[in-house]
Amino acid sequence: MRKLIPILILVISFFGTTIGQNLIPDPGFENWDGTPGWAPGPLSCLAEWYEASGTADYHHQAPMFSGSNLTGLEDCPLGQGNTNCGFPYEGQAVLGCWKGNGPDGNREWAGIQLTEPMVAGGCYKVSFWIQNKVDDPDRLLVTNQWGMFFNHTPTPFFNASLANYSTMADHWVASDQIVDGSEWMKLEFDYQASEAFSYAYIGFMGDYATSSNIIYNDDYLLGPYVWIDEVVVERVDPQLTLTDDVSICVGESLTLEASSNFPIRWEDNNSGVLSRTVSPQQTTTYYVQTQDSTLCAIRDSIVVTVIGNQVVDFMGGEVCEGAAPFLLDPTILEGSWAGPGIIDITQGLFDPAVAGVGGHYIAYTSDVDCSEDFTLFVEVSLPPVVDFEADVLEGCPPLEVQFNDLSATTGIAYNWDFGNGALSNDLLSTSTVYSSLGRFAVSLEVVYSEHCKNTQTIADLIEVFEAPDVDFTYAPINPSNLNPEVQFFDTSVGALSEWLWDFGNGTTSDKNNPTAVFNLPGIYDVKLMATSVNGCVDSISRQITVQSKVNFYVPNIFSPNDDGRNDHFEVFALGALEDYKMTVFNRWGGIVFQSSDKNTFWNGDLPDGRKAENGIYTYAIEYDYRGISPEASISGVEMGDVMLIR
């Protein structure tokens, strides 16, 4: 078995190449000061190693190392649990470490100062050879979690046997594999230093509860015991240099170069060559990775851009079927265009209607340099459906209508045409007023992008009925309190179904040609409101003036003989009189009767009670007339003669 070891080392070294010096100054525990002692000896006889926790053992083959279990240079009988025989992996010495039984069992750690502090964030290859020395299959004392701990101090700042290692996971590495059997095995680790540590400890690491072990007896004096040899801590610092990113034309080839202090791997073909020729037909990214540590391996790439086969999306916004032809790129003045929808190959004029709905690839070819060639992808879609509603579809003028956009897709601009000469750019909602009769088509154009819009037109959406033109006349033209009845005549234009008159005197009518009586003089507001057969309403108001007039009806003869006929001289007055006084004179001017009450009559008696003689008498009626306004009020005297015959 020993003869196979060198071959194994060569294989591991080829595939796990590292750089940098070993930070362990005495990897094989060979720097012994020659002090004799009983085996195993303390670490105080070593120049660099020391006891960091517990009492790790030192074994050496030198004859003066009295009683050393290495001095015999004999193979151990395998499977008997012997610890007093064997060979170092290399050189003449080994380290012996024990892990006491149970979670609080003693841990034997050896410590050493590194030749230089670790680099924080740097990656390291950690390895050592280990051999189980308690190999009796009937009395197994074996475990895993043999490893190394890195720190700032020569000895731990904690109790190595009782610490919580999960809180210090960035300080240590340990094996998952149980170290058993009787052969030397190599443990290797990738470690990334969290800090610039200067010291290392070796032995059993981690929490006991997480370990895998086989302990045949729970005696605390028992426990796994191992030999350790050839401890290595080396910095892994990979370097990788690649060809710069480059652009080529379609059909061209180029050579890609990579250099590294580690083996490399091209991810696309899994090869490790440092130089290769490629002929990509499209833009391709070539990834390269150094083959060193999984923690610090470098991964980089070379981007080879294939010019002329680049497909770029049209960035001018959404393009819809029916849009007007447009230039795909107005900034390009030379070259040629080819593809569906191109109607001018030199200018790149694209007609969506010619191309049709769907995705189209338009090729541009430069007259100057193939690096300027590209393929433009233009998607022509059906324009979104435009829909809208009106809150009122018919009515009488002036008809106000509210319109609302119901389109599923919102546009960036709106153009409304209401059909009545009015336009609007309001978004989503707008309104207009229809003042004339007719049927009106309404259209809405929604703009979604510079090259996408759609229009919805609804014919005869709005109907405005004819509004009646209400008017009336009346007779007589100059009514008065003496002639108070007025006849009204509807002269409206339009088919009417309802009339409502308000004469201003407290009376109304629903006839088309009604009559009203105005008993009092004054100015009256007469209003006619009429409704057409379509429900349209119009109204008009006019003022009519009822004149204030007075008439006196005075008899010219009376016979106060008590026969029941014309026995009184009685005056009848029509009109609104404020003041009234009637005086009757005889032929010599004497007053025979006088009254301020128009309802009082003369019975033919004189003031002294005698009977007046037959004859001609003169009367004078003084009055104040109340007109419809102060300016129309007058005062006057009405005079005449009356004959008295008995």
Features:
five-stranded antiparallel beta sheet, 6 domains, elongated, disordered N terminus, Jelly Rolls, mainly beta, 49 strands, Immunoglobulin-like, single chain, 646 residues
Question: Care to describe what's here?
Answer:
The protein folds into 6 domains: 2-236, Jelly Rolls; 240-307, Immunoglobulins (Immunoglobulin-like, Sandwich); 311-381, Immunoglobulin-like (Sandwich), CATH 2.60.40; 388-464, Immunoglobulin-like; 472-546, Immunoglobulin-like, CATH 2.60.40.10; 551-644, Immunoglobulin-like, CATH 2.60.40. It is an all-beta fold. The strands form 13 sheets. A 5-stranded antiparallel β-sheet has the order 1-4-10-7-8, with no helix packed on it. It is 2% helix and 43% strand.
Number of discrete helical segments: 2
- Rounded mean pLDDT is 88
- Share in helix: under 10%
What fold name stands as the CATH topology of the largest domain? Jelly Rolls
Distance between the termini: 184 Å
The CATH homologous superfamily name of the largest domain equals Galactose-binding domain-like
Shape: elongated
Strand % is 35-45%
Care to count the β-strands? 49
- Derived from helix and strand composition plus strand pairing, the structural class reads mainly beta
Low-confidence stretches: 1-18
- In order across it, which strands form the biggest sheet? 1-4-10-7-8
Number of domains: 6
* Second-tier CATH architecture of the largest domain: Sandwich
Q: Can you identify the CATH class of the largest domain?
A: Mainly Beta
What is the rounded Rg?
63 Å
The biggest sheet, with number of strands, parallel, antiparallel or mixed sense and barrel status, is: 5 strands, antiparallel
